Amino acid sequence: MDMGRVLTGSPWTFNNHLLVLHRLQWGEDPLKVPLIYTPFWVQIHDVPARLFSEKLAAQLGNFLGSFLGYDGANLGKENRNYMCIRAQIDIRRPLKRKKQVLFNGICSYVRFKYEHLSLFCFYCGRLGHNDSFCKAKMLLGVEFAELGWDLSVRAQSRRALSMNSVWLREENDSQRE
């Protein structure tokens, strides 16, 4: 039971560093397990609500890595105008920020925001280091370089968003409905 909770609750971090976990199968050699994939909950913003579907979620999840699941609970909820998917991400690759999609003959972009995002580089977009220790930036030999990523890829937690619920307001709160 605890193993399942740990695996479904990932990604986990320690001192803001990502912990990559893998459940060993019987007979699997731990020394041969590539610790390069980890699941993330990813919020997909700027998708018209009428197009929220598991099919679209799977397509976008496979664009990010490997689609693992879809949380349909966001539909119609206040402050939740995004799709939420779970995808297995290759941590050696830069985080994907957006994807061009075609909605009813109109080209548009959807934006990706990663929940529980740990240490990542604003220069190369990879997890595990910051721009002060980026090999790609060091190879250029420049002290100041244009950053390709920013905090917009970090999602606000869904729990923080739900704190605005009318059920959680104080009894004397003037915003009562």
Automatic annotation (TrEMBL):
Q: Which InterPro entries match?
A: At4g02000-like, Zn_knuckle_CX2CX4HX4C
- Domain Zinc knuckle CX2CX4HX4C intervals: 89-135
Q: What Pfam families does the annotation carry? A: zf-CCHC_4
Source species, domain of life: Eukaryota
UniProt xrefs under PANTHER family: DUF4283 DOMAIN PROTEIN, GLYCINE-RICH CELL WALL STRUCTURAL PROTEIN 1.8-LIKE
Name-wise, this protein is Zinc knuckle CX2CX4HX4C domain-containing protein
The protein's organism comes out as Gossypium anomalum
